Structure formats: C-alpha cells, structure tokens
Amino acid sequence: MFEELNPEPVVEEADTIVETPEVEVSVEKTASTTEPVIEKEIKNYLSDDLFKEVKVVTQDEILSPEVEVSEPNANEALYEGALIDIVEDKLLMGRVVGANEKEIMIDIGFKSEGIIDRSEFSNEELPAIGEQVEVYVEHIEDAGGNTILSKDKADFMRRWRDLKESFDNEEIIKGTLIRRIKGGMIVDLGKVQAFLPGSQIDVRPIQDFDYYLNKELELKIVKLNEARKNVVVSHKAILEASLAEQRDALFQELEVGSILEGRVKNITDFGVFVDLGGIDGLLHITDLSWGRVNHPTEVVELNETLTVKVIEYDEERKRVSLGLKQLSPHPWDGVESKYAIGTIVKGKAVSLTNYGCFIELEPGVEGLIHVSEISWTRHVKNPSEIYSMGDEIEAQVLSIDTEDRKISLGVKQLSPDPWDKIEEKFIVGSVQKSTVQNLTQFGAFAELEDGIDGLIHISDMSWTKVIKHPKEVLEKGQEVEVRVLEVSRENRRISLGYKQLLDDPWPKIIEFYESGKEVSGEIIRVLDKGIIISLDMDVEGIIPFGKMSKRDRRALASQFEVGANLSGIVMQVSPEDRKVILFKEELAGGNRQSANSAVKEFLKNQDDAEGEKLELPLELIEQAKSAEKEEETPEEA
Question: Kind of pairing, strands 305-314 and 356-362?
C-alpha cells in the first residue's frame, strides 16, 4: 500500500554483519571493519553492559550434583516468551544491532535481524547501536531470505495514526501549502500530504492562489480515506466556525434600514456579494445605482469598502438584501420642474429597440425617442439606422408621466415640419424632377427633395400597357420627371404620375381602331383563353377563343407561336383594360359561313358611330359563358 509514497528499497547482501558471539569476541575480526564509525559502534555494542546478565559456569560446577538445572518446561516457556508475532504491514519497535555502508540492521525479536536501507536516514537521524527505533515490516523474507523493514513507512504510518485521531476528535492541525494543482493545493502535514480544495481555502473566492504558497495554515480534516490513504482538509471550515458567533450576533442587531459597512467579496453578472463581518449580503445590480448598469464592475471593484443600506433580510435563511442607490435621493423627485415640456435636453443613448431609442438624461432618469419622433419626412424602421449606443442626442421634451416614470422625447421637433408648406411647394398638376428611391409591387417611391417622397402607382406608369411590376418601366436611382396628382398634408402623402406627362392616347386609339377594321400584329403571348398580339399605337389586341372544349382550345393554341404575325377584325376597344378585342374566324369555332354572317350582322347594327365601345349580343355572351362553365374542371371552378 506504500508503493506510491516510498518505492521498495533494493536490498543487497550486507558487507559486514555483526552478530553476538557465544563465548568470546575476535579482536582481529573487529579490526578488519572498513568504517571507523562501524568499529566504534561494534565496541559499544560489545560493552560490559551487554553481557552483565551472562553467568559463567565452570566444569566442576557442571559436574557437581548441587548445581541447579532449569526445568525443560521453564526454559521452553522463557524461549517462547522471547518471541513475538511477526507479520507484514505492521509497526514494531526494534533495536539497532549493526550497520554497514548500505544498510542498518534492526533486531525485532525475529529469528533474524531485519534490514533498512541506509538512505532512509539522514546523517542527523542516523541511529546509534543499541538505539530503539520504530519500524515497518515490509517483507518477512525476501528472495535473499532477509527481513525488509522501512523507517519512512513507519513514520508515515505513525503520522497517519495521529491524523486519524485528529479526524475522529475533530481537532485542528497545521500544514504548509507546498504546491498548486488543478482545483486546489497540496498541503504538507509531515510525512503525509493532503488536498486542500480551492473553495475551502477561504470564505471568499480566491483570486491569487500563489499568495498562499509556502504558508502555514490551521486546517481541519474533512475527509479521510483509510484504503487509499487520502486526506482532504479545509481552512474555510475553521473560519466559518469562528464567524458563526459573529453572524448570530449581527442578526440580533440587524434591522431594515440599517446602514452598514462591508467589503466587496465577489462580483457576478447579477450583483455584488458584500461581506458584512460574518454575513454575506447581496447587492443586486438593480440596487447599485438609480441609473442603468450593464455590469456591476461599472460601479464597484473587488475588495472595495462600501457603505450600504439593509433593504430586506431573512434571519431563518440567513439572507440579507442590500442597497447602494437607496443612500441617495430618488432622481425623479422634482423631475417635472427640471424637465418641463418643451425643454431642449441632451442625453446619451443607452438602449436601442425596434420601437425607439432610450437616452439617459441623468442617472435614473431616461427618456424615450419613439421611432415616429425621429424624422418628419424619413420613414425610420429602426433607430439603429440613425443612432448608435453611446451617442449624445439632443431632443425636446414632449410629455412626462411621473406615475409611470416615463418621459417622451422628440428629435424632429427641433426643426420645422416641411409638410406645413408642402401644398404650396408642390402644387397639384405641376411637373417636378425626382429620383426613384424604391420599387415595390404596387409602385415606385420617388424623392422630390430631401425627406419628401411621392408614390408613382403602377396604374400611373403607362397609358396603354398593363404593368405587372414597376421595374418594367423604371429603375432604382433613375431620375425622372413626374406630375403631381394629389397632395395630402394630413396623411403626409403625395401621389405622382408618370404617364400623365403625355396626353391620353385612347381617344385617338378608339378612332383609329374602328369596329370591323381588320388589323394585324405580332403574337406576344398565347393563352388558354386567347392570343395577345402587339398592335400599332403601342396597344395590345386580344383574339379570344370561341365556344369549344378546353382540349380543342389547347390544340388550336399549339398551332401559333410567339413572334408570328396574326390578323383579326376589331370588335371592341376597352381603355379600362388597355385592350383592343379582335375576332378571328378560325379561333371563334363553329360554321365559318354562319360565323361571318353573324359578325357582319352584329357590326351593321351598331349605333355607336364613334366606336367607343361595342356590346356583344346577349345570346352570344350567354352561350360563351355556358360553354366555358361546362369545360372548366372542378379545380378551375
């Protein structure tokens, strides 16, 4: 069990072994010893005191019948009494009977002396012949037949025995911190090393472990593992015990509102722990200052002495809540007179949200600049587009709510509202220069001047074409002239027109595409319901398919390709739909001859001489609707 503490020494055959002679001692043999020290030890060993108990018996006395002879049983009892029970892993007292350059011989009352490696003794500790020493039996008999003993392990076992007694009796011991390791420090307890966890060094968290190196501390054993020979000690347990009395006394005097002094013991993200002298109080981050605090280190430092106020305590749970800001007046006292409505104030941006920017006017007093109060003209989606954290911002006080402690601020109020004179500046019907700023699905926003935008709706981009997206006509960043169609100061809206720069061409288109006129153009789209062709005067014509099945329509449509030329007869002009409706016999279906006569009859009976709008016969419309309804699938319906 001691392999880790002390490796088993290598035992070699002794150069000189000193034994007790039976009758006489040979001086020559003693003189042959190589070491003067060993010679001296042998002489001491062979002193008169060693043989004072030896009785000399002459031959006559032996032959005399009067000589008393010990009974066999008595001698046997004396012999057995001289022997002791020798087992391994045991502490025994032995007497030094010899030594050489490598080993010390110890008599432990066994059949042969035990040997200890001389390296286990320092020069100062080297025992004299005849001296009593406590040893540990490692092996009763090794490969060479020697009994191996150890002094180091005996010292360890003796110290372990003392530490176990201290642990059982909860005694305080002393140890020196000799080395730092992960999680704590190693403590030298004298022949035995113990582990001191970092959390058990002091009642407060340790920042500098090196400060404790080579220092002696009072310790208490908190864990002792007999099998593994591990020891865990604590210095904190001693400190806590001494602080317990102070803690109880302090709680007896503690009151809400008490002003105390304490030392900053630990700083966390949520607050500061303050040592009040036996009690740790929590100074929450919200109680550090009336102002906004992002982290406690902005206000306090470790080991700083603070004057704090007790705002709450729980004697049962031994918890104390402290306040620092409570020692100064509340900043909202008299805020209405200090920040009257209309006052121009300055503050630092301390928070940016999607709805506004909070600025700190003074610690504990903040105002909100709502996103709608940043600019008269610019549509600000997020304050971060304009401001950054820490910016110095000037604003005007709009309102104060002392009950909820809210102050509303505005930045745009510092400059005149350009919409006050917008109707005078941008007169309806006037032509203005603008720059396209943004394109949306329903139109384009064009900037008339810095911060003033107008909307060009998709329906106001072309007289003749159906525009599906503004990008078909305009590009972002393009400079264009527009006509002002409408100005609303209340709604802060300006409607602009792009097509209105030109005259409406539809009166001339209607006149040009008179009913019955045959026209032709290039196919630009082929649909299931008809074919779209490009006509003169930048208009589109549609030739709808007549009454036929959906399959026939698709088959018919497949015969026409985009880009091919196709002609038809004008049936109707629709300015609202921006289309000229045409008729083509092959696409109308039915009997060709009857279809021609029906169209001619229809066109002949038109009363509208100008041809602004042609109405189809009701019967034809109903027939077309009925046919289409029959051909539609359930999904289309």
Answer: unpaired
User: What secondary structure, in 3-state letters, does 524-554 show?
Assistant: EEECCCEEEEEEHHHEEEEEECCCCCHHHHH
With CA atoms as reference, report the closest residue to 370 among 422, 335, 331, 406: 406
Query: Distance (Å, rounded) from C-alpha 499 to C-alpha 463?
Result: 6
Q: Is the pTM of this model over 0.90?
A: no
Number of H helices, E strands in the chain: 13, 30
pLDDT in tens, 340-349: 899 999 999 9
User: Which residue(s) pair with 541 in the sheet?
Assistant: 533, 580
- Could you state, in order of their start, the residue ranges of all structural domains in the chain? 27-150, 170-238, 254-327, 335-414, 418-501, 506-630
Reading phi first (left if > 0) and then psi (alpha if -120 to 50, else beta), residue 240 is in alpha
**SS3 breakdown of the chain: % helix, strand, coil, rounded to 5?**
25, 35, 40
Q: Would the CATH topology of 27-150 be identical to that of 506-630?
A: yes
Class of domain 506-630: mainly beta
Q: Count other Cβ atoms within 10 Å, centred on residue 448.
A: 19
pLDDT band at 23 (very low <50, low <70, confident <90, very high): very low
Three-state SS at 14: coil
Top CATH class of 335-414 equals mainly beta
What is the dotted CATH code of the domain comprising 170-238? 2.40.50.140
How many Cα atoms sit within 13 Å of 351 on the Cβ side?
16
**pLDDT score of 117 more than 50:** yes
Arithmetic mean of pLDDT, 67-86: 50
Burial 220-247 (b: 16+ CB within 10 A, else e): bbbebeeeebebbbbbbbbbeeebeeeb
Residue 550 carries which side chain, given as an amino acid letter?
K
Cβ pair 477, 491 in contact under 8 A: no
Helix H or strand E encompassing 517 = none
- Among residues 410, 479, 492, 501, the alpha carbon closest in space to that of 452 is found at 492
Task: Reduce the secondary structure of 292-326 to three states and give it as a string.
Answer: CCCCHHHCCCCCCEEEEEEEEEECCCCEEEEECHH
Give the Cα separation of 274 and 260 in Å (integer): 10
Is the distance from CB of 78 to CB of 67 less than 8 angstroms?
Answer: no
- CA 343, chain centre distance (Å): 43
Phi/psi at 106 (nearest 5 deg)?
-125, 130
